[in-house]
Request: fold
Amino acid sequence: MFTRSDLSKETAIRGMRQEPGKGGIKVVRKHPKGPDASARSKLSDPELIADSLSAAPGDTRDFDELVRRHQGHIRANCRFIVKDPEAALDLAQEVFVKAYFARSGFEERATFRTWLRRIKVNQCLSFRESRWSRSDWSLDAPGLEDEPNLRVAPTAHEDVEKKETGERVMRTLDRIPDTLRIPLVLKDMDGFSNREIQELLGIGLSAVKMRISRGREAFRAAWEADWEEER
Reply:
């Protein structure tokens, strides 16, 4: 969940008020009345955002509900992009911290999930660039266009969100090179359009389409290879 330790000390301090009492000043945490957990779970994402903005400083209960709803797929998708389980957990937490402080800029022209995904993608790509130089994993790596076409058409990737296939999906994605895996994740898991992927990755539109197509083919081939190994 979204805990106070994830926020700045200044924010935590603003969530307190001072009252006179015996022995000096008494610090009292604000917990204003509001929807209980059951009622809060029935609110829409935009309603929770609005309530979190009007809540007393330090009261993150409305945002906690948003974290509960979305943390699963954010963590999984961070894992799919960076291939590092521990880093994925840290990145997912950073995504929600950034979202918390930027929530006043959320507009209902897009869903909260889509808005959150953009923050996630930027966070994951920044992490990759900080760990490896861009030349090490550039999506415009020379020679990619000369790779032979893989034979198998994509179908298995549609099972990605099924819980029972999660571990196998991760193993399969780990077999796919970054140049193909990242555009595939952005397209088929995050739901970005080709043009949005073009902007996020800084590559040409034709390159985006090619990498998504080859990524799907690679996924299918790796999926079947993993299946054969399990027999």
Summary: Residues 7-33, 133-161 have pLDDT under 50 and may be disordered. The longest strand covers residues 16-21. The domain at 6-20+35-132 is CATH 1.10.1740.10 (Rna Polymerase Sigma Factor; Chain: A).
